[in-house]
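Quick review question:
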């Protein structure tokens, strides 16, 4: 029998402890997701930042560094150094990559690795991130392309994001303005990789109007809408911050001088796990008009957000 190494045993014990703690408390672990955006033919280029076309995989110089998963790209496969010098706009060609993060993403962070032959300046959502080398066709070439720079990004946001890179190729020797070189002696290229990490709310199961099907809601702005947040072996409803719960913005109904929240614990589906049943105040059912689903949101006592969705059937007011 092979003996397990000490570090492997320690890692196994840590993982076992984490699993036991999660299972013992009935809490779902935070939902962390990652996304990688790399230079490839989905990147677009432009001369004027208006009319864009897809970049192409370009000829790769043997001395260029590599970034895992990313492809060296440019406007053309083989560089035309004369055109690169005479036609390039001031500040370099535009290379753009758009990507979207979930609308409910939070705790967003990212790391960008990038280099270009010969120089670049990069921005994210309109804010400068960094640059390497003068973005000027006359250079000079200080071999900026030989190293990959890494930036920590702080401007990432839910929804659409735009990574914009200005990149340029130098003339070999400004003292010889007509000596442009050849595609393999003076090539142009760009390579990058953006790794994004973010959290999304825990997804929980809910049951609007438990025991009914369809889940009909009267559009009369009176009474309350019962909603059960279902517990499980990985989700302990006792850890919910009850006051934070809302259904499409509608809060839990309160009663009495103490403004007591109408909520209680009950196993509504008989699965052996306690559920939290809340009475949502139907104060503005217009927020549900025309909808076939409704989403409940809230937070755990530790601040972790969660959400769940169920179908609804709006009954017109009499």
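Suggested answer, residue by residue:
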């Amino acid at each position: 029998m092979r003996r397990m190494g000490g570090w492997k045993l320690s890692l196994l014990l840590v993982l076992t402890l984490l699993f036991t703690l999660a299972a013992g408390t009935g809490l779902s672990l935070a939902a962390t997701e990652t996304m990688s955006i790399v230079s490839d033919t989905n990147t677009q280029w432009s001369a004027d930042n208006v009319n864009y076309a897809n970049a192409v995989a370009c000829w790769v110089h043997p001395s260029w560094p590599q970034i895992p998963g990313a492809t060296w790209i440019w406007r053309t496969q083989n560089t035309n150094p004369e055109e690169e010098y005479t036609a390039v706009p001031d500040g370099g060609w535009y290379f753009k990559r758009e990507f979207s993060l979930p609308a409910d993403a939070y705790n967003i962070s990212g790391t960008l690795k990038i280099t270009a032959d010969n120089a670049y300046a990069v921005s994210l959502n309109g804010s400068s991130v960094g640059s390497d080398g003068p973005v000027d066709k006359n250079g000079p070439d200080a071999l900026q392309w030989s190293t990959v720079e890494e930036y920590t990004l702080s401007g990432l946001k839910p929804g659409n994001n735009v990574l914009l890179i200005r990149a340029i190729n130098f003339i070999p020797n400004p003292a010889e303005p007509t000596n442009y070189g050849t595609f393999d002696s003076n090539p142009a290229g760009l390579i990058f990789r953006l790794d994004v990490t973010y959290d999304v709310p825990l997804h929980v199961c809910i049951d609007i109007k438990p025991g009914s099907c369809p889940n009909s809601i009267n559009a009369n702005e009176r009474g309350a809408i019962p909603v059960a947040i279902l517990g499980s072996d990985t989700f302990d409803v006792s850890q919910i911050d009850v006051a934070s719960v809302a259904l499409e913005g509608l809060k839990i109904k309160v009663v009495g001088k103490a403004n007591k929240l109408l909520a209680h614990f009950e196993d509504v589906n008989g699965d052996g796990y306690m559920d939290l049943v809340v009475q949502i105040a139907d104060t503005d059912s217009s927020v549900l008009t025309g909808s076939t689903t409704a989403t409940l949101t809230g937070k755990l006592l530790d601040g972790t957000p969660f959400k769940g969705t169920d179908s609804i059937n709006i009954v017109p007011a009499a």
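Why it works: The first strand starts at residue 31 and ends at 38. Confidence is low (pLDDT under 50) at residues 1-29.
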